[in-house]
Design brief:
This protein is an alpha/beta fold. It has four helices and nine strands. The protein binds inosinic acid and magnesium ion (MG).
Length: 182
């Protein structure tokens, strides 16, 4: 285990197993339709590539980038669009793939942004769902794991752009927030 990690919350095996289940569920739900997976950069990338390989349907992939955190560990509440999708969503069945739903503000912004552009349907697949109070209620159709309200890293999730390459989801030692400049 990495020295900066206090506790492994979800192991690589558990991530792989759950991704297979989610892929089967999405395959069954979208049978006969063509899917567009919308990945939210950068945190959702490892999850998206693993999930996509477990979906037995014709599909395409596109990405958008959003900023809501800066380098800290608490959401700024201000959501900014950094990169829009390359292609059109008109008439397509979208599944937004997110790394984590924390306050829900990012997801609410993305959902609105995509629903207004004439897609046939929009659902969300979030790898992690933090158990906490939320000012906004955003539906998340597929949830990988419900986790306590701790700051986690790994498998795509970062602190100040680091730790995305850890193969598991771990709780970052709180003393790290104080020592990494941001
Ligand atoms: P929200 O808008 O508060 O729901 O935040 C969503 C975004 O914040 C996610 O896509 C992540 O990039 C980031 N985020 C939220 N919680 C964590 C965490 O525990 N670790 C790392 N990034 C997080
Ligand atoms: Mg982030």
């Amino acid at each position: 285990m990495h020295d900066d990690i206090e506790q492994i919350l979800i192991s690589a095996d558990e991530l792989a197993h759950r991704t297979v289940e989610l892929g089967e569920q999405i395959t069954n739900d979208y049978r006969g339709r063509e899917l567009l997976l919308v990945g939210v950069l950068k945190g959702a990338v490892p999850f998206l590539v693993d999930l996509a390989r477990q979906i037995q349907l014709p599909l395409t992939i596109d990405f958008m980038a959003i900023s809501s955190y800066g380098a800290g560990t608490a959401s700024s509440g201000v959501v900014r669009l950094l990169k829009d999708l390359d292609g059109s969503v008109s008439g397509k069945h979208l599944v937004i793939v997110e790394d984590i739903v924390d306050s829900g503000l990012t997801l609410q912004y993305i959902r609105r942004h995509l629903e207004l552009r004439g897609s046939a349907s929009v659902r969300v697949c979030g790898l992690l769902w933090k158990e906490r109070e939320r000012a906004v209620e955003v539906p998340c159709d597929y949830v990988g794991f419900r986790i306590p309200d701790r700051f986690v890293v790994g498998y795509g999730l970062d602190y100040a752009e680091r730790y995305r390459n850890l193969p598991y989801i771990g709780v970052l030692r709180p003393e790290i927030y104080a020592t990494v400049p941001h």
